[in-house]
Amino acid sequence: MMVLVYALLLGGLEFGPGMRIDEMIDPSVAFSDLASAGGGVLCAIWDGDDPKKIWSVASTDGGNTWQDQVEVNDESTAYPEQPSVAADTLGTFYAAWGDQRGPGPGVICFSKSTDHGLTWLEPNVIATDSGVESVAADIACSADGSHIVIAFNRIDERRIYCTCSDDGGATWSDDVPAGDEGTGSQFYASVHWMGDDNFICAWRDPRYPYLYASVSYDGGATWLHPNVGIPTDGNDPEGDDIKFCWAAPYVHVTWTTWYSIGSHAYFEVYYSRSDSTGVNWWPEPARVDSGGHSIYRDWGGIWSPDSRTVYVAWRQTERYEEEMYALCAASYDSGRTWGVPAIANNDKLRCHHCSFTGDRKTGSLYMIWHSAELWFSRGTDDTGIGSEPEQPAAPILSVSPNPCDASTTVHLLGAGGLLSDVRVRDIYGRLVCRVRATTEENRRLDTSSLPSGVYLITARHEGRSYNANAVVIH
User: For 253-286, how does the pLDDT look when each residue is reduced to its tens digit (9 = 90+)?
Assistant: First the structure.
Protein backbone atom coordinates (compact mmCIF):
# COMPACT_ATOMS: atom_id res chain seq x y z
CA MET A 1 0.00 0.00 0.00
CA MET A 2 1.24 3.49 -0.92
CA VAL A 3 0.84 6.54 1.31
CA LEU A 4 0.73 10.19 0.19
CA VAL A 5 2.06 12.87 2.52
CA TYR A 6 -0.20 15.78 1.55
CA ALA A 7 1.17 19.31 1.49
CA LEU A 8 -0.45 22.22 3.30
CA LEU A 9 -2.24 24.42 0.76
CA LEU A 10 -2.05 28.16 1.15
CA GLY A 11 -5.31 29.10 -0.55
CA GLY A 12 -6.80 29.36 -4.04
CA LEU A 13 -6.51 26.62 -6.65
CA GLU A 14 -3.50 24.44 -5.80
CA PHE A 15 -2.31 20.86 -6.14
CA GLY A 16 -0.27 18.81 -3.68
CA PRO A 17 2.89 16.85 -4.44
CA GLY A 18 2.81 14.08 -7.02
CA MET A 19 2.65 10.46 -5.97
CA ARG A 20 3.42 7.47 -8.17
CA ILE A 21 0.50 5.03 -8.09
CA ASP A 22 1.47 2.25 -10.52
CA GLU A 23 3.67 -0.70 -9.48
CA MET A 24 5.11 -1.69 -12.85
CA ILE A 25 8.73 -2.85 -12.80
CA ASP A 26 9.27 -1.72 -16.37
CA PRO A 27 6.67 1.06 -16.63
CA SER A 28 5.21 1.81 -20.05
CA VAL A 29 1.83 3.49 -19.51
CA ALA A 30 0.32 4.34 -22.90
CA PHE A 31 -3.20 5.62 -22.09
CA SER A 32 -4.90 6.36 -18.76
CA ASP A 33 -8.27 7.47 -17.40
CA LEU A 34 -9.70 8.44 -14.02
CA ALA A 35 -13.16 8.28 -12.40
CA SER A 36 -14.56 9.43 -9.05
CA ALA A 37 -17.57 7.91 -7.30
CA GLY A 38 -17.58 10.69 -4.69
CA GLY A 39 -16.68 10.62 -1.03
CA GLY A 40 -13.00 9.99 -1.77
CA VAL A 41 -13.62 6.80 -3.79
CA LEU A 42 -11.72 6.92 -7.09
CA CYS A 43 -10.14 4.62 -9.65
CA ALA A 44 -7.33 5.08 -12.18
CA ILE A 45 -7.07 2.75 -15.17
CA TRP A 46 -4.41 2.38 -17.87
CA ASP A 47 -2.94 0.10 -20.51
CA GLY A 48 0.66 -1.04 -20.12
CA ASP A 49 3.05 -3.05 -22.26
CA ASP A 50 5.17 -6.13 -21.55
CA PRO A 51 2.72 -7.80 -21.72
CA LYS A 52 -0.11 -5.62 -22.97
CA LYS A 53 -2.77 -5.51 -20.23
CA ILE A 54 -5.36 -3.24 -18.64
CA TRP A 55 -4.51 -2.28 -15.05
CA SER A 56 -6.23 -0.29 -12.33
CA VAL A 57 -5.58 1.11 -8.87
CA ALA A 58 -8.20 2.41 -6.45
CA SER A 59 -8.39 4.66 -3.42
CA THR A 60 -11.15 5.10 -0.86
CA ASP A 61 -9.68 8.10 0.98
CA GLY A 62 -9.29 10.69 -1.76
CA GLY A 63 -5.88 9.51 -2.90
CA ASN A 64 -4.07 9.50 0.45
CA THR A 65 -3.54 5.76 0.10
CA TRP A 66 -3.90 3.40 -2.87
CA GLN A 67 -4.54 -0.32 -3.09
CA ASP A 68 -2.23 -2.63 -5.03
CA GLN A 69 -2.73 -2.52 -8.80
CA VAL A 70 -4.92 -5.26 -10.30
CA GLU A 71 -5.66 -6.58 -13.78
CA VAL A 72 -8.95 -5.53 -15.34
CA ASN A 73 -8.86 -7.80 -18.38
CA ASP A 74 -9.26 -11.57 -18.08
CA GLU A 75 -6.85 -14.21 -19.40
CA SER A 76 -8.46 -14.42 -22.85
CA THR A 77 -7.52 -10.84 -23.70
CA ALA A 78 -5.38 -10.04 -26.73
CA TYR A 79 -3.69 -6.66 -27.06
CA PRO A 80 -6.20 -4.56 -25.06
CA GLU A 81 -5.80 -0.82 -25.45
CA GLN A 82 -7.17 2.65 -24.66
CA PRO A 83 -9.30 1.88 -21.59
CA SER A 84 -12.02 4.20 -20.29
CA VAL A 85 -13.57 4.18 -16.81
CA ALA A 86 -16.76 5.62 -15.30
CA ALA A 87 -18.27 5.50 -11.81
CA ASP A 88 -21.75 5.67 -10.33
CA THR A 89 -22.45 7.27 -6.96
CA LEU A 90 -22.79 3.85 -5.30
CA GLY A 91 -19.09 3.15 -5.81
CA THR A 92 -19.27 0.79 -8.79
CA PHE A 93 -16.67 1.31 -11.51
CA TYR A 94 -17.31 0.46 -15.17
CA ALA A 95 -14.53 -0.04 -17.72
CA ALA A 96 -14.43 -0.46 -21.51
CA TRP A 97 -11.58 -0.92 -23.97
CA GLY A 98 -10.69 -2.18 -27.43
CA ASP A 99 -9.49 -5.79 -27.63
CA GLN A 100 -8.18 -8.06 -30.36
CA ARG A 101 -9.45 -11.32 -28.85
CA GLY A 102 -10.87 -13.56 -31.59
CA PRO A 103 -12.30 -15.07 -33.53
CA GLY A 104 -13.24 -11.93 -35.46
CA PRO A 105 -11.66 -8.48 -35.69
CA GLY A 106 -11.35 -6.02 -32.80
CA VAL A 107 -14.19 -5.92 -30.26
CA ILE A 108 -15.15 -3.64 -27.38
CA CYS A 109 -14.86 -5.34 -23.99
CA PHE A 110 -16.50 -4.43 -20.68
CA SER A 111 -15.86 -5.15 -17.04
CA LYS A 112 -16.97 -3.69 -13.73
CA SER A 113 -15.91 -3.61 -10.10
CA THR A 114 -18.45 -3.63 -7.28
CA ASP A 115 -15.88 -3.52 -4.46
CA HIS A 116 -14.32 -0.11 -5.06
CA GLY A 117 -11.82 -1.37 -7.62
CA LEU A 118 -10.32 -4.27 -5.63
CA THR A 119 -11.49 -6.91 -8.13
CA TRP A 120 -13.03 -6.88 -11.60
CA LEU A 121 -15.66 -9.02 -13.29
CA GLU A 122 -14.38 -12.19 -14.97
CA PRO A 123 -14.85 -13.28 -17.60
CA ASN A 124 -15.05 -9.90 -19.34
CA VAL A 125 -18.16 -9.15 -21.35
CA ILE A 126 -17.92 -8.47 -25.08
CA ALA A 127 -20.12 -5.39 -25.41
CA THR A 128 -20.07 -5.25 -29.20
CA ASP A 129 -19.26 -8.13 -31.54
CA SER A 130 -20.78 -7.16 -34.87
CA GLY A 131 -18.03 -8.79 -36.91
CA VAL A 132 -16.67 -5.34 -37.74
CA GLU A 133 -13.50 -3.98 -36.14
CA SER A 134 -14.37 -1.55 -33.36
CA VAL A 135 -11.86 0.69 -31.55
CA ALA A 136 -11.44 3.72 -29.26
CA ALA A 137 -14.10 3.02 -26.61
CA ASP A 138 -15.41 5.63 -24.19
CA ILE A 139 -17.83 4.72 -21.38
CA ALA A 140 -20.39 6.63 -19.30
CA CYS A 141 -23.03 5.68 -16.75
CA SER A 142 -25.97 7.30 -14.98
CA ALA A 143 -25.58 8.32 -11.35
CA ASP A 144 -27.35 5.18 -10.09
CA GLY A 145 -25.76 2.84 -12.65
CA SER A 146 -29.12 1.97 -14.23
CA HIS A 147 -27.87 2.99 -17.67
CA ILE A 148 -24.41 2.38 -19.17
CA VAL A 149 -23.37 3.60 -22.62
CA ILE A 150 -20.21 2.86 -24.61
CA ALA A 151 -19.29 4.96 -27.66
CA PHE A 152 -16.75 3.69 -30.18
CA ASN A 153 -15.55 3.91 -33.76
CA ARG A 154 -16.55 1.23 -36.28
CA ILE A 155 -13.74 0.95 -38.79
CA ASP A 156 -15.89 -0.26 -41.70
CA GLU A 157 -17.93 2.95 -41.91
CA ARG A 158 -15.54 5.19 -39.96
CA ARG A 159 -18.63 6.19 -38.05
CA ILE A 160 -19.40 6.62 -34.35
CA TYR A 161 -21.65 3.94 -32.85
CA CYS A 162 -22.96 3.31 -29.35
CA THR A 163 -24.15 0.31 -27.40
CA CYS A 164 -26.05 0.46 -24.11
CA SER A 165 -26.96 -1.73 -21.15
CA ASP A 166 -29.71 -1.39 -18.55
CA ASP A 167 -28.81 -4.46 -16.50
CA GLY A 168 -25.43 -3.49 -15.10
CA GLY A 169 -23.48 -4.59 -18.16
CA ALA A 170 -24.62 -8.21 -18.30
CA THR A 171 -26.16 -7.74 -21.75
CA TRP A 172 -25.70 -5.08 -24.41
CA SER A 173 -27.82 -3.68 -27.21
CA ASP A 174 -27.01 -3.93 -30.89
CA ASP A 175 -24.72 -1.23 -32.26
CA VAL A 176 -26.67 2.01 -32.85
CA PRO A 177 -25.21 4.84 -34.96
CA ALA A 178 -24.72 8.12 -33.12
CA GLY A 179 -23.03 9.90 -36.03
CA ASP A 180 -24.86 10.92 -39.17
CA GLU A 181 -24.35 8.79 -42.26
CA GLY A 182 -22.02 9.81 -45.07
CA THR A 183 -20.08 12.65 -43.39
CA GLY A 184 -16.63 11.14 -43.84
CA SER A 185 -14.35 9.80 -41.12
CA GLN A 186 -15.70 10.23 -37.60
CA PHE A 187 -13.38 9.37 -34.74
CA TYR A 188 -12.43 9.91 -31.08
CA ALA A 189 -15.89 9.78 -29.51
CA SER A 190 -16.57 11.09 -26.02
CA VAL A 191 -19.79 10.11 -24.21
CA HIS A 192 -21.23 11.46 -20.97
CA TRP A 193 -24.37 11.21 -18.85
CA MET A 194 -26.39 14.43 -18.50
CA GLY A 195 -29.15 13.65 -16.01
CA ASP A 196 -32.20 11.35 -16.01
CA ASP A 197 -31.97 8.93 -18.99
CA ASN A 198 -30.02 11.41 -21.11
CA PHE A 199 -26.57 11.01 -22.67
CA ILE A 200 -24.51 13.11 -25.05
CA CYS A 201 -21.83 11.88 -27.46
CA ALA A 202 -19.46 14.09 -29.48
CA TRP A 203 -16.58 13.48 -31.85
CA ARG A 204 -14.51 15.03 -34.61
CA ASP A 205 -15.45 14.60 -38.27
CA PRO A 206 -14.86 16.43 -41.58
CA ARG A 207 -17.70 18.88 -40.91
CA TYR A 208 -15.44 21.07 -38.73
CA PRO A 209 -15.03 23.85 -37.69
CA TYR A 210 -17.98 22.57 -35.67
CA LEU A 211 -17.77 19.79 -33.16
CA TYR A 212 -20.59 17.38 -33.82
CA ALA A 213 -22.69 15.70 -31.18
CA SER A 214 -25.73 13.52 -30.82
CA VAL A 215 -27.99 13.16 -27.81
CA SER A 216 -30.00 10.26 -26.46
CA TYR A 217 -33.00 10.72 -24.19
CA ASP A 218 -33.69 7.01 -23.65
CA GLY A 219 -30.55 5.68 -22.01
CA GLY A 220 -28.58 5.27 -25.24
CA ALA A 221 -31.11 3.17 -27.15
CA THR A 222 -31.61 5.79 -29.89
CA TRP A 223 -29.63 8.88 -30.95
CA LEU A 224 -30.60 12.20 -32.48
CA HIS A 225 -30.21 12.70 -36.24
CA PRO A 226 -29.26 15.04 -37.84
CA ASN A 227 -26.42 15.66 -35.41
CA VAL A 228 -25.99 18.86 -33.41
CA GLY A 229 -23.20 21.31 -34.25
CA ILE A 230 -21.31 22.79 -31.30
CA PRO A 231 -19.80 26.13 -32.44
CA THR A 232 -16.01 26.37 -32.10
CA ASP A 233 -13.51 29.19 -32.62
CA GLY A 234 -13.42 28.37 -36.34
CA ASN A 235 -10.29 26.22 -36.27
CA ASP A 236 -9.78 22.47 -36.54
CA PRO A 237 -10.78 20.68 -33.30
CA GLU A 238 -8.51 18.01 -31.88
CA GLY A 239 -11.06 15.20 -31.63
CA ASP A 240 -9.42 13.10 -28.91
CA ASP A 241 -9.58 15.98 -26.44
CA ILE A 242 -13.38 16.41 -26.18
CA LYS A 243 -14.55 16.07 -22.57
CA PHE A 244 -17.97 16.62 -20.98
CA CYS A 245 -19.33 17.28 -17.51
CA TRP A 246 -22.93 17.47 -16.31
CA ALA A 247 -23.74 19.78 -13.40
CA ALA A 248 -27.38 20.86 -13.37
CA PRO A 249 -28.65 22.88 -15.09
CA TYR A 250 -25.85 22.84 -17.68
CA VAL A 251 -23.85 20.44 -19.85
CA HIS A 252 -20.22 21.60 -20.00
CA VAL A 253 -17.67 20.71 -22.70
CA THR A 254 -14.01 21.43 -23.38
CA TRP A 255 -11.76 20.69 -26.36
CA THR A 256 -8.58 21.92 -28.05
CA THR A 257 -8.11 23.34 -31.55
CA TRP A 258 -5.01 24.00 -33.61
CA TYR A 259 -3.94 26.18 -36.52
CA SER A 260 -0.70 27.55 -37.97
CA ILE A 261 0.55 30.96 -39.04
CA GLY A 262 3.80 30.74 -40.96
CA SER A 263 6.16 28.53 -39.00
CA HIS A 264 4.22 28.86 -35.75
CA ALA A 265 1.58 26.35 -34.59
CA TYR A 266 -1.08 27.36 -32.11
CA PHE A 267 -2.95 24.96 -29.83
CA GLU A 268 -5.80 26.47 -27.84
CA VAL A 269 -8.19 25.19 -25.17
CA TYR A 270 -11.87 26.13 -25.35
CA TYR A 271 -15.03 25.80 -23.28
CA SER A 272 -18.75 25.92 -24.02
CA ARG A 273 -22.01 24.92 -22.40
CA SER A 274 -25.60 23.97 -23.17
CA ASP A 275 -28.81 23.70 -21.24
CA SER A 276 -30.01 20.25 -20.19
CA THR A 277 -31.15 19.35 -23.72
CA GLY A 278 -27.55 19.19 -25.01
CA VAL A 279 -28.50 21.14 -28.16
CA ASN A 280 -28.52 24.82 -27.07
CA TRP A 281 -24.81 25.69 -27.09
CA TRP A 282 -23.15 29.06 -26.79
CA PRO A 283 -22.80 30.72 -30.22
CA GLU A 284 -19.11 31.32 -29.44
CA PRO A 285 -16.88 29.37 -27.03
CA ALA A 286 -14.68 30.85 -24.30
CA ARG A 287 -10.88 30.63 -24.48
CA VAL A 288 -9.44 28.84 -21.43
CA ASP A 289 -5.64 28.79 -21.84
CA SER A 290 -3.35 31.83 -21.51
CA GLY A 291 -1.97 31.81 -25.08
CA GLY A 292 1.44 31.46 -26.69
CA HIS A 293 2.62 29.81 -29.90
CA SER A 294 4.52 26.53 -30.38
CA ILE A 295 2.98 25.27 -27.15
CA TYR A 296 1.26 21.92 -27.58
CA ARG A 297 -1.98 21.42 -25.63
CA ASP A 298 -4.16 18.31 -25.52
CA TRP A 299 -5.96 15.68 -23.39
CA GLY A 300 -7.20 16.70 -19.92
CA GLY A 301 -10.76 16.88 -18.63
CA ILE A 302 -13.52 19.05 -17.18
CA TRP A 303 -15.42 19.05 -13.90
CA SER A 304 -17.89 21.32 -12.12
CA PRO A 305 -19.27 21.05 -8.57
CA ASP A 306 -22.21 23.40 -9.08
CA SER A 307 -22.26 24.78 -12.67
CA ARG A 308 -21.01 28.20 -11.56
CA THR A 309 -17.50 27.02 -10.73
CA VAL A 310 -15.94 25.06 -13.61
CA TYR A 311 -12.48 23.48 -13.90
CA VAL A 312 -10.71 22.54 -17.14
CA ALA A 313 -7.46 20.54 -17.28
CA TRP A 314 -5.03 19.89 -20.11
CA ARG A 315 -1.50 18.78 -20.90
CA GLN A 316 0.88 21.48 -22.06
CA THR A 317 4.26 20.89 -23.69
CA GLU A 318 6.85 23.65 -24.00
CA ARG A 319 10.46 23.98 -25.18
CA TYR A 320 10.59 20.90 -27.39
CA GLU A 321 9.23 18.60 -24.64
CA GLU A 322 11.71 19.76 -22.01
CA GLU A 323 8.78 21.02 -19.93
CA MET A 324 5.53 19.02 -19.92
CA TYR A 325 2.84 20.12 -17.49
CA ALA A 326 -0.54 18.89 -16.27
CA LEU A 327 -2.49 22.14 -15.87
CA CYS A 328 -5.87 23.10 -14.43
CA ALA A 329 -7.68 26.44 -14.75
CA ALA A 330 -10.81 27.61 -12.92
CA SER A 331 -13.76 29.79 -13.85
CA TYR A 332 -16.05 31.24 -11.18
CA ASP A 333 -18.63 32.77 -13.53
CA SER A 334 -19.91 29.69 -15.35
CA GLY A 335 -17.12 29.55 -17.91
CA ARG A 336 -17.11 33.14 -19.17
CA THR A 337 -13.66 34.06 -17.83
CA TRP A 338 -10.75 31.87 -16.75
CA GLY A 339 -7.90 32.29 -14.31
CA VAL A 340 -4.21 31.48 -14.50
CA PRO A 341 -3.80 27.67 -14.51
CA ALA A 342 -2.32 25.75 -11.59
CA ILE A 343 0.35 23.10 -12.15
CA ALA A 344 -0.61 19.63 -10.93
CA ASN A 345 2.78 18.02 -11.53
CA ASN A 346 4.62 20.51 -9.35
CA ASP A 347 7.64 18.25 -9.18
CA LYS A 348 8.37 19.04 -12.86
CA LEU A 349 7.59 15.43 -13.77
CA ARG A 350 7.12 14.81 -17.47
CA CYS A 351 3.50 14.57 -18.61
CA HIS A 352 2.57 12.79 -21.85
CA HIS A 353 -1.12 12.51 -20.99
CA CYS A 354 -3.38 13.60 -18.13
CA SER A 355 -6.91 12.86 -16.90
CA PHE A 356 -8.94 14.95 -14.50
CA THR A 357 -12.10 14.81 -12.39
CA GLY A 358 -13.47 15.98 -9.06
CA ASP A 359 -15.53 15.02 -6.02
CA ARG A 360 -18.80 16.81 -5.26
CA LYS A 361 -18.95 15.35 -1.74
CA THR A 362 -15.52 16.58 -0.65
CA GLY A 363 -14.77 19.37 -3.14
CA SER A 364 -11.42 17.77 -4.01
CA LEU A 365 -9.87 17.84 -7.48
CA TYR A 366 -8.07 14.77 -8.82
CA MET A 367 -5.44 14.63 -11.56
CA ILE A 368 -3.42 11.72 -12.93
CA TRP A 369 -0.70 11.95 -15.54
CA HIS A 370 1.94 9.72 -17.05
CA SER A 371 5.09 9.63 -19.09
CA ALA A 372 6.03 6.00 -18.54
CA GLU A 373 4.96 5.91 -14.88
CA LEU A 374 1.51 6.88 -13.56
CA TRP A 375 1.28 9.74 -11.06
CA PHE A 376 -1.50 11.32 -8.98
CA SER A 377 -2.06 14.67 -7.32
CA ARG A 378 -4.99 16.05 -5.33
CA GLY A 379 -6.05 19.67 -5.57
CA THR A 380 -8.19 22.00 -3.51
CA ASP A 381 -9.75 25.39 -4.18
CA ASP A 382 -11.11 27.60 -1.42
CA THR A 383 -12.07 30.33 -3.89
CA GLY A 384 -15.22 29.25 -5.67
CA ILE A 385 -16.55 25.88 -4.54
CA GLY A 386 -19.99 26.05 -3.00
CA SER A 387 -21.36 28.97 -5.03
CA GLU A 388 -24.98 28.79 -6.08
CA PRO A 389 -25.73 28.08 -9.76
CA GLU A 390 -25.76 31.16 -11.91
CA GLN A 391 -29.13 32.85 -12.46
CA PRO A 392 -29.88 34.25 -15.91
CA ALA A 393 -29.06 37.95 -16.06
CA ALA A 394 -31.08 38.58 -19.23
CA PRO A 395 -34.30 37.14 -20.66
CA ILE A 396 -33.92 33.78 -22.37
CA LEU A 397 -36.21 31.96 -24.78
CA SER A 398 -37.54 28.75 -23.26
CA VAL A 399 -39.01 25.77 -25.12
CA SER A 400 -40.91 23.24 -23.03
CA PRO A 401 -41.19 20.31 -23.23
CA ASN A 402 -37.87 19.84 -24.97
CA PRO A 403 -37.49 17.27 -26.52
CA CYS A 404 -41.09 17.30 -27.74
CA ASP A 405 -43.38 15.14 -29.87
CA ALA A 406 -46.70 16.62 -30.99
CA SER A 407 -46.35 20.13 -29.54
CA THR A 408 -44.23 22.44 -27.43
CA THR A 409 -44.66 25.80 -25.73
CA VAL A 410 -42.47 28.86 -26.32
CA HIS A 411 -42.12 31.56 -23.70
CA LEU A 412 -39.60 34.18 -22.59
CA LEU A 413 -38.12 33.77 -19.12
CA GLY A 414 -37.30 36.96 -17.24
CA ALA A 415 -39.53 39.31 -19.24
CA GLY A 416 -43.19 40.21 -19.35
CA GLY A 417 -45.38 40.71 -22.38
CA LEU A 418 -46.16 38.63 -25.43
CA LEU A 419 -43.82 37.30 -28.09
CA SER A 420 -44.18 38.21 -31.75
CA ASP A 421 -43.02 36.73 -35.04
CA VAL A 422 -42.10 33.25 -33.79
CA ARG A 423 -40.25 31.30 -36.51
CA VAL A 424 -39.13 27.67 -36.68
CA ARG A 425 -36.34 26.66 -39.07
CA ASP A 426 -34.75 23.29 -39.77
CA ILE A 427 -30.97 22.71 -39.71
CA TYR A 428 -30.75 23.80 -43.35
CA GLY A 429 -32.28 27.21 -42.55
CA ARG A 430 -35.64 26.48 -44.19
CA LEU A 431 -38.68 28.10 -42.57
CA VAL A 432 -41.07 25.35 -41.51
CA CYS A 433 -43.42 27.24 -39.17
CA ARG A 434 -44.25 30.87 -38.38
CA VAL A 435 -46.59 32.58 -35.91
CA ARG A 436 -46.82 36.31 -36.57
CA ALA A 437 -48.34 37.32 -33.22
CA THR A 438 -48.64 35.20 -30.10
CA THR A 439 -51.24 35.17 -27.38
CA GLU A 440 -51.42 33.12 -24.23
CA GLU A 441 -53.32 30.51 -26.24
CA ASN A 442 -51.06 30.15 -29.30
CA ARG A 443 -47.66 30.06 -27.63
CA ARG A 444 -47.99 26.30 -28.16
CA LEU A 445 -46.44 25.22 -31.45
CA ASP A 446 -47.75 22.21 -33.35
CA THR A 447 -44.74 19.98 -34.12
CA SER A 448 -46.66 16.83 -34.99
CA SER A 449 -45.97 17.17 -38.72
CA LEU A 450 -42.26 17.99 -38.39
CA PRO A 451 -39.73 15.19 -38.96
CA SER A 452 -37.60 14.21 -35.98
CA GLY A 453 -34.58 16.46 -35.65
CA VAL A 454 -33.21 19.74 -34.27
CA TYR A 455 -34.97 23.02 -35.05
CA LEU A 456 -34.00 26.64 -34.45
CA ILE A 457 -36.77 28.74 -32.90
CA THR A 458 -36.50 32.55 -33.05
CA ALA A 459 -38.89 35.02 -31.47
CA ARG A 460 -39.04 38.79 -31.08
CA HIS A 461 -39.95 40.77 -27.98
CA GLU A 462 -39.85 44.57 -27.71
CA GLY A 463 -37.61 44.88 -30.74
CA ARG A 464 -35.07 42.21 -29.70
CA SER A 465 -34.60 38.71 -31.13
CA TYR A 466 -34.15 35.56 -29.00
CA ASN A 467 -33.11 32.06 -30.11
CA ALA A 468 -33.41 28.51 -28.80
CA ASN A 469 -33.08 25.03 -30.23
CA ALA A 470 -35.85 22.45 -29.98
CA VAL A 471 -35.58 18.71 -30.45
CA VAL A 472 -38.50 16.89 -32.08
CA ILE A 473 -38.68 13.14 -31.51
CA HIS A 474 -41.61 11.01 -32.71
Answer: 999 988 878 777 788 999 999 988 899 899 889 9
Answer whether 430's CB lies under 8 Å from 423's CB: no
pLDDT (0 to 100) of residue 386: 43
The two counts, helices (H) then strands (E), for the chain are: 0, 38
- Give the predicted TM-score (pTM) of the model: 0.84
Per-residue pLDDT of 363-384, as tens digits, reads 999 999 988 889 999 999 988 5
Q: How far apart are CA 422 and CA 124, in angstroms?
A: 53
| 294 vs 95, more confident | 95
pLDDT tens, 16-42?
999 999 887 777 888 899 999 999 999
- Give the separation between CA 192 and CA 6, rounded to whole angstroms: 31
Backbone φ and ψ of 72, nearest 5°: -95, -40
Burial class (CB in 10 A: 0-12, 13-18, 19+), 53: middle
Q: DSSP letter at 338? A: -
Q: Return the CATH class of domain 2-381.
A: mainly beta
| C-alpha–C-alpha distance, residues 42 and 421, integer Å | 51
The segment(s) of the chain belonging to CATH 2.120.10.10 are 2-381
Q: What residues contact residue 407 under an 8 Å CB cut-off, 6+ apart?
A: 444, 445, 446, 447, 448
Cα-to-chain-centroid distance, residue 65: 27
Q: What is the DSSP string of 247-307?
A: ETTEEEEEEEEEEEETTEEEEEEEEEEE-TTS--B-SSPEE-S---SS-EEEEEEEE-SSS
**How far apart are the C-alpha atoms of 67 and 43, rounded to whole Å?**
10
Q: Which helix (H) or strand (E) holds 310?
A: strand 310-318
CATH topology for 396-472 is: Immunoglobulin-like (2.60.40)
Q: Where in the chain is the domain with CATH 2.60.40.1220?
A: 396-472
CA distances from 52 to 11, 77, 123, 444 (A): 42, 9, 17, 58
